[in-house]
Amino acid sequence: MRRRPWALKKFVPLWQQTDALPKHQRDALIRRSSTFELFSEMSHRFHDLLNQRYGACATPYSVDESLIKLPSRGDLIGEGRSVRKQIWTELRLGCKFSAAPTITLAKAASELAKSHPDYRGLCILERPDRLLLATISVGDVWGVGRRLAPRLEAAGIRTAWDLAQYDRLSLRRLHGVTLERTHLELNGKECMRVADMDVSNRQQIMSSRSLKEKPVALVTLMPGVMERVSTVAKKLRDHDLVASEYLLQLSSSPFDRSVRWGHSQRLRLAYPTDDIRELATAAAKAVELAYRPGVPIGRVTVGALDPCNRDECQLGLFDAPVRKGADKLMAGIKAIQSKYGTHSLQIAAQKLGDRSADNGARHSPRSLTRWEEIPSVR
């Protein structure tokens, strides 16, 4: 007997869907919170393994995805099987492998590897294939998105193959050069390089989190802010980036209609840096100025604007000198956190051991980062 799939939709809050489920499914539903700490550690190990295997050819694209520029088109099926086996053996993570002449086709092949059981997680597209691209809806094409998809469907473009066969100049005139590049990539013409996806080329690095307790006092708000500051500083260190301009945003909860408040401020430092001490000092001063007594803060966002590579950044003639020993100290923090975990070394303002910014009450065991949550066998 074949099981009927659950009628749960992506990106729709669970509490809005549970009432529509049959009673036996509501009773069997297991609710889990997002375990960001566990996901982050798994992601770091995943990308570190690919970096050891492929070196500079591997570029992290997201938490669970990496783009790899292979030097030659050899035995791609054998390569895919080999890397999947290594990831499973060393990390116990199942993954999909897809390959194609362009990034957009590789993303399309990734959709096929996920959705078609016949591929068994491995899909190679050596050229645009009508039968395969016709099975991918236009909304699932990388670079299209949910907002643009209805407009394309209204014009008769319903699948990836329809988009690949549409008139290129008409697409550019109606929807811009970005969709034209997607069209060319679906036809096997490379318009985007893997190197362009590198995090070091991003214009900003952001960290945002909803606060569980909705603090109204400055002393309870500060640890949540420092947690985001620490996350941004770590992302900068991991990619050898520095920045002199940062963004701080505080706001009330969007679900609390009794109060609407938000504050956004840019922090300009004397010189580009990833020094957590400099960032924490600037953020603390900004929070003290922006703080409004009695307003419950529901969300904190911290970002680094226009980061640059550490080796390519030059100080001006009249810029303040870099804090002595800062680079060595940050390198030491990076080494310790890489070996013992992100929360093994923190600044005092984060309240060591406090996870007030984490709103997960039903998370899975964080056995990769917490000694007390490692399963025990008797």
Rg (C-alpha, Å): 24 Å
Distance between the termini: 38 Å
User: Count the helices. How many?
Assistant: 12
Shape estimate: globular
- Taken as a percent bin, the fraction of beta residues is 5-15%
Low-confidence stretches: none
How much helix, percentage-wise, in residues? 25-40%
Query: H/E series, N to C?
Result: HHEEHEHEHHHHHEHEEHEEH
Helices and strands: which structural class?
alpha+beta
Average pLDDT, to the nearest integer?
A: 83
Instruction: Tell me the total number of β-strands.
Output: 9
Major sheet summary line:
5 strands, antiparallel
Helix and strand arrangement:
Layout: H1 23-28, H2 36-54, E1 58-62, E2 65-68, H3 76-91, E3 97-99, H4 103-115, E4 122-124, H5 130-133, H6 145-154, H7 160-165, H8 168-175, H9 177-186, E5 204-210, H10 218-238, E6 241-251, E7 262-273, H11 276-290, E8 299-305, E9 308-309, H12 326-340
Parallel strand pairs: 3-4
Antiparallel strand pairs: 1-2, 5-8, 6-7, 6-8, 6-9
